[in-house]
Amino acid sequence: xxxxxxxxxxxxxxxxxxxxxxxxxxxxxxxxxxxxxxxxxxxxxxxxxxxxxxxxxxxxxxxxxxxxxxxxxxxxxxxxxxxxxxxxxxxxxxxxxxxxxxxxxxxxxxxxxxxxxxxxxxxxxxxxxxxxxxxxxxxxxxxxxxxxxxxxxxxxxxxxxxxxxxxxxxxxxxxxxxxxxxxxxxxxxxxxxxxxxxxxxxxxxxxxxxxxxxxxxxxxxxxxxxxxxxxxxxxxxxxxxxxxxxxxxxxxxxxxxxxxxxxxxxxxxxxxxxxxxxxxxxxxxxxxxx
Length: 290
Prior knowledge:
Layout: H1 13-19, H2 29-41, E1 58-63, E2 68-75, E3 82-90, E4 97-101, E5 106-111, E6 116-123, E7 127-130, E8 135-137, E9 143-145, E10 149-152, E11 159-160, E12 167-177, E13 180-193, E14 196-203, E15 208-211, H3 215-220, E16 236-239, E17 244-250, E18 255-266, E19 273-285
Antiparallel strand pairs: 1-2, 2-3, 3-6, 4-5, 4-8, 5-19, 6-12, 7-10, 8-9, 11-18, 12-13, 13-14, 14-17, 15-16, 15-18, 18-19
């Protein structure tokens, strides 16, 4: 849990707001405010460029002739529900950037120059800094940049069904797919009311296909082998621009868990993966695992 002795934890949201205007010269105050709002109110999945240089976040810079980018890992540091935020900004004036940040659970192909790609999610698992969280970048992830990232201290635990605050997640950015610009903006919400588990996926960007392995198989264990619009064979969902998908289903259980799912975003044109991120969802469980 957060507060465990000897563990370096993420900073508080109050610290984020306190330092939000104490920025390095190459960042604008408007830019910093966007991230402050993202971490205190929940990140908006519309493809906006959000990044800051603040003592509250783990920030780094890569600057060379061929590759220029900045990266940020941050949390709001609350003692209950925590929002994790990871972001990469391509600062090169002309070149696209492909980057993979495994410890942060995200990957983006061809981030547009001057633009960002990011992933945020809510969780109840405390944050700890992992200084060994390198970013792989370039064609075929051939280069490596040392970096730190906030990661969860432990896997999610199965708990008794009591109160389950809304979980929000998002994957967003401005990418390029075969030289065509792509606005990526996926937002997910997960909630529990009584015995009913509800999921809402909102697409604020261009048309996309998402794959989320393990989701349909879990619900099949609770008598729901088919999910509306969901390709259970591929664990795949297609969303047009502006489309919302909602799935609600009761599960007569006393226990639930909060799980981080890895989501791959596929290009509708080529069927290739253009992005990967994590979303946090509630799932029913039959028994507490000891």
